[in-house]
Amino acid sequence: MSSPQVYIRNKLHGWLPASIISSDEKIAKVKVDVPVSVGSDDENCETKTEELDIKLSEYEGGNLPLQNVKESGEIIEMADMCDLPYLHEAAIVYNLKSRHKAKKPYTRVGDIVIAVNPFQWIDGLYSDDTRSNFSEKLVWSSDSGGDAKSELPPHVYETSSLAYRGLAVDNQDQAILVSGESGAGKTETVKIVMSHLASIQSSDSTASSDSSTSPTAGLSSVVKRVLDGNPLLEAFGNAKTTRNDNSSRFGKYIQLQFDVEDATAASFSGRRVPSCILAGSYCDTYLLEKTRVVGHEHPERTYHIFYQLLDAPDAEKTKIWSGLAGTHFSSFKYVGDTETKKIEGRTDAQSWERTVYALNLLGVSGDVFLTLMKAVAIVLQLGNLDFAVDPQNEDGSIVSTSDELTKLADAMGVATDDVSKALTARTVIAGKDVYTVPLNASDARDTRDAFAKEIYQQIFDWLVKSINNATTAENNYADAKDVEEFGLIGLLDIFGFESFKINRFEQLCINYANEKLQQKYTIDIFRSVQEEYEFEGIQLEDVTFSDNVDVLKLVEGRMGLISVLNEECVRPKGNDSSFVSKVKTMNKDMTCLISERLHRPEEFAIEHYAGVVKYDATNFVQKNMDSIPKDLLECASKSTNKLISVELKAAADAKMAAKPSGGGRGKKASSMTVATKFRHQLTQLMSNISKTRTRYIRCIKPNPEKRPFLMNIPSSVDQLRCAGVVAAVTISRVAFPNRLMHDTVIERFSCLSSTHIDYDNTEEKKDDAGEESRWKDVADTLLSDLLKPLETTDEENGGAIKKAYVMGKTRVYFRLGALEYLENQRMNALGVLAVKIQTIIRGFVAHSVYRRIKSTTIQLQAARRRTKERNAYIKTLDAVLTLECWTRIAAAKARLLNLRKTKAATIIESCWRMHVAKSDLQKKKEAAVYIQKMTRGAIQRPIYKQLKVEAAEEARVNSKLAALQKRLADAEMKWIQADKARIEAEKKAAAGQAAAGAGAVPVQAAPLAVPAPQAGFVSDEPSDDSLKGISLQQKALIDESGKMLEYLRNEVFKLRGKNYLLRTDVTQLKEANATLTEHNSSVSASFEALKQHATQLSKTNMKLIVDTSQYKQEVTKLRTEVKSTSYSAKKEVAKLREELKKKEQAHQDEIVRLKRELGKKSRSGGDNSSSSNKNNNKRDDASSVRKNSKNKRSPAMLDDDEDADGDEYRPRITSEKQHRKAGRGSRSNNNKSNSSSSGKSKGSKNSNNKKNSNNNNNDNSSQKSGNTGGGSGTKKSSTASGNPFRKKGNKNKGGDSKGGNKAKESSNSTPAAKSSLASALSSKPSSSSGGTTTKISSGKPLLKTLQQTPKKTTTVSSLSKALKK
Length: 1365
Hints:
Elements: E1 5-10, E2 14-23, E3 27-35, E4 47-55, H1 89-101, E5 106-109, E6 112-116, H2 128-140, H3 156-169, E7 174-179, H4 186-200, H5 221-237, E8 238-239, E9 247-248, E10 251-260, H6 263-268, E11 276-286, H7 291-294, H8 304-310, H9 314-320, E12 342-343, E13 346-347, H10 348-361, H11 367-382, E14 387-390, E15 393-399, H12 402-412, H13 416-424, E16 425-430, E17 433-438, H14 441-471, H15 473-476, E18 487-493, H16 505-536, H17 549-556, H18 561-570, H19 576-586, E19 593-594, E20 603-608, E21 611-616, H20 620-625, H21 630-637, H22 642-657, H23 665-670, H24 674-690, E22 693-700, H25 713-723, H26 725-732, E23 738-741, H27 742-749, E24 765-766, E25 772-773, H28 776-786, E26 792-794, E27 800-802, E28 805-807, E29 811-814, H29 818-996, H30 1024-1027, H31 1032-1163, H32 1168-1191, H33 1216-1228, H34 1235-1255, H35 1259-1268, H36 1277-1280, H37 1297-1308, H38 1310-1321, E30 1328-1329, E31 1332-1333, H39 1342-1348, H40 1356-1364
Parallel strand pairs: 6-22, 7-18, 7-22
Antiparallel strand pairs: 1-2, 2-3, 3-4, 5-6, 8-9, 10-11, 10-18, 12-13, 14-15, 16-17, 19-20, 20-21, 23-29, 24-25, 26-27, 28-29, 30-31
Helix pairs in contact: 1-25, 2-3, 3-4, 5-10, 5-14, 8-10, 11-12, 11-14, 13-21, 14-22, 16-17, 16-24, 16-26, 18-19, 21-22, 27-28, 29-31, 31-40, 32-38, 32-40, 33-34
């Protein structure tokens, strides 16, 4: 059974879920999973389980807050948190976290809608269907009974729809208050609500389902101006902060003006709900953050309009002011560089176009637009001014950036000296005297910043007035004259409660506004609780809750912060420290004012409804003054920019015209302060809101990292406190902290009742209101019995019994501690039942284990028996398989032999076909080459002859030309020598004239030599002038040169003609060559085809070679097997030899004995005829032995390979050496034999030699030799050797006629072999038979004699029989 689930406080994680292990009146021991890291994703991070002791005194009522969980442990999620069984701070935040994770950003607490920023667009959340659904159910539905909200999920459309219906049906002005910290989504929520309100009346709304900010299509121009005024306020009043990229740095209260139809007129028209037409709007702004104009922290930004202006096209910037040409963010100190390039998905350039469009829609265009933007540029240019100490006056200052000052003066249209004087000096009026006081550099910078802030404030105020002029119903609605009073729906978008490390004047004003709103919020919540109790029929007792009246009194009271601050502003030497001191002294009895010893003189703290906030009063007095020096006003009034000159002067006049109600100088000065003005605005705002039906939307920023669908518990709890949600829960649950439905009470606690509840026979009863309450009496009876120990006596009511609960119409309201008591009793009762259930379960588990063990044992036994039987079966199966394998092996060997023969034949056929194809290819290739050779020769021979003739002719011409060139060079050389001689003669003549004097007769000069002709030019006929004074020899040379040139010209002409003819021949040769090339290509194609065929044949050949290699490998394996078989056979032969040796020894002994006996008989004179008869008998016995040996041959004495006939075997030959000895012995003993026997011996020798040579070759070669029939072959050699064991009449099938003759000769020699064996057994030393002589002596055993014989050996059994005989 699970233990009670509770929440415990944690400093790092806010609230953590835990389970109670044990508990007493003071300490509760709990088990909790604590996240290791601190952040927004606590669920997905690692955790460690701890057991903690919790002091119950630290929790309200001495009880830990219970979790809202089901029996399965799953958290209970409610759309309306009023329906939660246990409603407290931890339950609220974990309910919000569960819905936020499920992409449900909206949750309601009664009439309050809590909006958690999802940081991601959720499809379908703001679609047209969703809008129309809320409008239909909450506005236009005819069914007014019941709570229509319960049928719909929480949404901001719920608030806007109820506000619209309240205005249309109840004719009561509405107000929607949207609050939250920066980044919580206040501005977006206001835009969504405005869009919905504008589209409710329109039956054909075309608002985009994907955007909530521009649903202006199809609406009137007034509505468009109302909705599109938001981008302008965002551009001039929003900026990027560390918490939000588009944070509103001002508060605004937008009053949407509706033309509400009269209810009577609507009923006559058949409409149940009067129509409300959006006619216009009016906007009030509060507390613009002017300090952001002159400075901001990194990575924050100043207001968006500055970045949009600087990111605009250069053409537009130049049109506004020439000083903006080519500028960027870093060009102005008030702006500076920024890392943020986009805001809400739009660049600054895109936002600039949107701002320009919105201004045009409001009528701000042309010169007015240029004036507005130029004023913004002036603010930027002011930031570029810098100041330095005046060299002539240490207390004064000068503008150190003269270029920037010149640009500023040009932008303002004011003289440079006037601007410089206004910023560096201040005019002081003392009575009738006027003084000019110089300002130091620091004061000058403050003056510059104050001037920039004031200009921007007036720009913002002017923009708001322009928007109001363009959107107010009085000025823009067509039927404004027919409307007596417009209905209002106010939308308040104001800054949430702020608490930073350093809190200044702005935070005090913001928190003061939130305190005023919290007071209104508390009153509204108390009223809603009162209405709920009245509906349930419960008497409302005295409800005590925390109020913030003392905080408001501290701020706005007679001796409050604002009054003391105004007094310090009026006082000549008022300062911040004096202000703080006076506040602490005058309000020391205030419990909300906190004064600690560690505070600095400028520090004080206030305990607000959301927590304690410490303020730093530095510059409070200066910021509250908010006055601009007279010198700056005069400088601004001289500006050509109308917005600056007119608006600043009008603002100053308005401040001077403001007069207090009581009169007096001090009150007049205090009425111009910022705090006083803000208090008046706030008072007016609260007055307007108090006249309306107020609805609330609380925006929550779930995590500082802006990660979608994650919630940081501590941060969210702080925001819930600041939003007043926790306070609302406290007020609603102060008398009855817990409440449950009647059926839920019976379902959860009926197990504690001692009596049975009959649910089926319970009668449905009705209360006074007429509503059905099926379980009310049952729940009352049940709780009366269970909560009797908690009943108390009320002495004030005469000792009446006060129960721990109160029965309402639909719910049961529990007093403090009652529900916790019931939960503990329920846990104890369920614990007893759990023990019984566990007993049954344990018994069931034990029985299940026993049955499982029994079943397992049976299975093991069966498996063991099965294994034993299977092993026996496997042994039998293996034996059967072995027999089958041997049988298959025998059959497979037979098939293998056949396949080898077939394969060998196939290889031979393939090789023959390949040889034929190669021969054919070679012949065709040679023919093609020969044809090409002859064709090329026939074509090239005439060309070669012609070229040879041309080469000879060219050589002859070149030789002649060389001779002519040589002669011409010699002539030129002579000419040059003659010219040199002439020059020498002229020099000598000139020298002689000089010596003769002036009166001598001048000698006639030598004739001038003809100048040498230029290179490349020869004259045909020399002129007469050139021939004067030339010798005859020179003339002859000239004539000869002319003839030579003429001859050369003729030769060149002839060569040109021959060249033309050669070119023609070359052209013809090229054509012939092209023809030959085509022919060659065809021949090449044929050759390629033949080549491909040859390639295919080569591949086939390669394949055959590979197959051959494989066959060789198989043959090698078979030979290895044959060798192994031969080795085993040799072993058997060795054994037989040993036996034969023994028998031979016995035989020799027998022969010796027989010899002795024969010797004795011969000596005794025995008859010769009797000995010859004995020899004949012995021959007959040997013959019979040979006949028997043919039929009884031992397999061990046969050869391994069978003959081609399959019934004959090769003779076993011991060695080649023994064979030769046998041959020599046969030749030596056959000198007296005939020629036929000699031929037989030679044939036997040749056959044996062939056999020995063929045994060294592989099986394939032996098969080929046998098939070709070149002689008798290796397998038929025994036929030619005259083997006595061969069958008579057997022919050699594989040999030729010669082999057949040899076989016949071998058959004829059989009697001789018989006689040789008989003679071997006889007592004679030698005998000749069939050309082979076998000598038996005591030194050579009979076995060796038999091995030397090149015949087939006899079997051991036949030989032994013969020896015995």
